[in-house]
Design goal:
3-hydroxy-3-methylglutaryl-coenzyme A Reductase, Chain A, domain 2; 3 domains; 18% strand; globular; binds (R)-mevalonate
């Protein structure tokens, strides 16, 4: 298996699918699933008031090596240049072995908010006194999760001052194994509420997961050789760009947006909850009290660039759309992942790679040149160009740096005239 499929981008979509099918050992049914996509009656069972489908392109980022394994990355995104940039960045990381990951494991928190308590610190201690009992009660709600090594591992209790009085917030710390975990932890939190009310004498309101998944952290690291990425000046430019994201939240937001271009595309392609991962990423980026970058860059002794990322990635392989959406199922097979933890490590690596590629472009030629050629193609299609004409018109507009529907229409008329003269 290799993720380095040369000339992949030049193939037609159906040829690319065959190339991926060969690498990922997809069967005819899985190939058909990608081609057909979600069906209306499947969609009708996934959410409410369905009237149709909203399709997003699914592409494959090539060249990734993650923890020594060649991986093809399915990415669902409408944004031009994202998949090309990820593939490019991954190619540059191959020289030094690609991406190397670690994680804290698939642990989530659920919160139980108790209010109206006059002696909140005593209530906190009372809850902790009943910790074993409470953990047992919660675990009884999900024997399957416990059977697979998951379940509630700990209970923490915080007293939080608020303008509506002190709140006693109990955190259930749950190992969710291969589930994203929202259903499991919410059920557990709801089941403990009456007992928490009994213990504290307070009134429980919220019983819900926290998307600030600071116990489900994933890390990835890659070394980019200076000569591979354009030289020492580019390394220095990337370091300066990364530093700005460290000290300026206005830049950090866009820096992290670039990370999420990669992260969200894989989260979506695998049928996971994009909003949960995004909420977790941005909350974690501000955990120190100021919004910061999720990645860091340094120069090693050889003058090469070392990039690292650390972020929460709460995704699952069981439950949700991952097991229902036919394309998501095939995307998981293409990734070849066996656990949610492994999937989260791939996602963080894609985030790092996407960020590196963006910073490299920003620190050298800028991003617009890459963006423009795809944008020009879209504009040519909008103007009505078909088949080979799309490429021809797009290339002319990009070269002229005049990309508009009006210009595309003019060029089409010009080419039409020329064709008439020849015939
Ligand atoms: C565009 O979608 C993402 C970038 O703006 C990210 C960045 O600036 O780092 C290119």
């Amino acid at each position: 298996m290799t993720s380095r499929i040369s000339g992949f981008y030049k193939l037609a979509p159906s040829e690319r699918l065959i190339a991926v099918a060969e690498q990922a050992a997809l069967g005819p049914e899985e190939i058909a699933q990608v081609q057909t996509g979600l069906l209306l009656d499947q969609a009708d069972k996934m959410t409410e008031n369905v009237i149709g489908l909203f399709q997003v392109p699914l592409g494959i980022a090539t060249n990734f090596v993650i923890d020594g394994r060649e991986v093809l990355i399915p990415m669902a995104t409408e944004e031009p240049s994202v998949i090309a940039a990820a593939s490019n960045g991954a190619r540059m990381a191959r020289e030094t072995g690609g991406f190397f990951t670690s994680s804290t494991g698939p642990v989530m928190r659920a919160l139980i908010q108790a209010t109206g308590i006059g002696d909140p610190f005593a209530a906190r201690q009372a809850i902790l006194l009943h910790k074993d009992d409470l953990m047992r009660m919660a675990n009884d709600k999900d024997p399957m999760l416990v059977k697979y090594g998951g379940g509630v591992k700990d209970i923490e209790v915080y007293v939080i001052d608020s303008k509506m009085g002190p709140m006693v917030v109990t955190h259930l710390i749950v190992d969710c194994r291969d589930a994203m975990g929202a259903n499991a932890v919410n059920t557990m939190a709801e089941s403990l509420a009456p007992r928490i009310e009994q213990i504290t004498g307070g009134r429980v309101y919220l019983r819900i997961i926290s998307n600030l998944a600071d116990l489900r952290l994933v890390r990835s690291k890659a070394v980019f050789k200076a000569e591979e990425i354009g030289g020492h000046e580019v390394v220095d430019g990337i370091l300066l760009a990364a530093e700005l994201a460290e000290v300026d939240p206005y830049r950090a937001a866009t820096h992290n947006k670039g990370i999420m271009n990669g992260v969200t595309a894989v989260v979506l392609a695998t049928g996971n909850d994009t909003r949960a991962v995004e909420a977790g990423a941005h909350a974690f980026a501000s955990i120190a009290g100021r919004y910061k970058s999720l990645t860091r860059y340094e120069k090693n002794r050889d003058g090469d660039l070392v990039g690292t990322i650390e972020m929460p990635v709460a995704v699952g392989l069981v439950g949700g759309a991952t097991r229902v959406h036919p394309v998501a199922k095939t995307a998981v097979k293409i990734l070849g992942v066996k656990s949610a933890d492994e999937l989260s490590r791939i996602i963080a690596s894609v985030g790092l790679c996407q960020n590196f590629a963006a910073l490299r472009a920003l620190a050298s030629e800028g991003i617009q040149r890459g963006h423009m050629s795809l944008h020009a193609k879209n504009v040519a299609v909008q103007a009505g160009a078909k088949c080979d004409l799309i490429e021809i018109i797009a290339a002319r507009m990009a070269a002229e740096r005049r990309i508009s529907v009006d210009r595309a229409v003019e060029l089409m008329a010009e080419l039409d005239e020329k064709a008439k003269e020849i015939t």
